[in-house]
Design goal:
alpha/beta; 2 domains; 47% helix; 11 helices; 2-enoyl-CoA Hydratase, Chain A, domain 1; 10 strands; binds coenzyme A; 4-stranded mixed β-sheet
């Protein structure tokens, strides 16, 4: 049985973590396969965006696989953290938009993985949390950084230091979940519809927005200068020409013929 599933339809790659009996916990094999699937999606010109989800109906991902790292040394644990952080950073820096479709538990590494995606759609029954303090450890896949970015310092500290999960309504209120749907059956269609909206826009401009928003969180980068550079660069693209021509001609732009 494949541990991570990859399928492709209508410009969208769907990547599904497939360990439902273990609540889709992230072991090294899952991380390696995830990496491979994202590389495949990014390298495929027919793929314009990605939906990431978990198999089964109980969890998106219930965290890093505790049984795997239970006896790690400090050096091994640090290496695992670095490995996961680098993978999640590559997801965050994907120029193709990535939407996490979250149902059930998104805990620990699961919450961190969802946060590395650009947007999150959750079912009403979803639960987000960073329970690592219950194990006597801190999050290791970027959770202490991205949670602050998404929900602010006070709420991030509350979630991180109590380890208590929040429900989907609270996640939505805090800006952690972009949208909430009632049923799991609505989840993938909603994620796909959101991506299809983006596919109507200039793909280079969408990639630019992702890159520039990520730049905001890099202390060593001057986001305004980078924005001006990007803005200027796009003026010499066919996509910009198409967008402006379409506006002038009072028609809808067709960017897809001008990748
Ligand atoms: N790592 C490894 N295995 C995990 C796991 C994880 N993070 N989360 C769940 N599992 C496994 C369980 O060990 C169990 O396996 P088993 O059937 O072989 O015993 C299976 O998934 C089902 O989980 P279970 O705990 O029986 O389900 P539950 O409904 O009682 O509880 C959770 C669900 C998510 C609340 C609970 O599994 C849990 O707390 N998981 C750990 C969450 C966590 O701390 N994540 C951060 C890790 S850094």
């Amino acid at each position: 049985m494949e541990i991570v599933l990859f399928s492709k339809d209508a410009g969208i790659a769907q990547i599904t973590i497939n360990r439902p009996d273990k609540m889709n916990a992230l072991n090294r094999a899952v991380l390696a396969e995830l990496d491979r699937c994202f590389q495949q999606a990014l390298g495929d010109p027919e793929v314009n965006g990605v939906v990431l989800t978990g198999a089964g109906d109980r969890a998106f991902v219930a965290g890093a696989d505790i049984s795997e790292f239970a006896h790690y040394t400090a050096a091994e644990a640090k290496a695992l953290s670095t490995f996961g952080q680098e993978l999640f950073r590559r997801i965050e820096e994907s120029p193709k938009p990535v939407v996490a479709a979250v149902h059930g538990f998104a805990l620990g590494g699961g919450c961190e993985l969802a946060m590395a995606c650009h947007l999150r759609i959750a079912t009403r029954a979803a639960r987000f949390g960073q329970p690592e303090v219950s194990l006597g450890v801190v999050p290791g896949y970027g959770g202490t950084q991205r949670l602050v970015q998404l929900v602010g310092k006070a709420k991030a500290l509350e979630m991180l230091c109590t380890g208590d999960p929040i429900d989907a309504a609270e996640a939505h209120r805090l800006g952690l979940a972009n949208h909430v749907v009632e049923e799991q059956s609505e989840l993938l269609p909603r994620a796909q519809a959101l991506l299809q909206r983006m596919f109507l826009r200039g793909s280079q401009a969408v990639a630019g927005c992702i890159e520039l928003v990520n730049d905001f969180f890099q202390a060593d980068r001057d986001g305004y200068a980078l924005e001006a550079n990007y803005f200027g660069r796009l003026f010499e693209t066919d996509q910009f020409r198409e967008g402006v021509d379409a506006f002038m001609e009072k028609r809808k732009p067709n960017f897809r013929h001008k990748p």
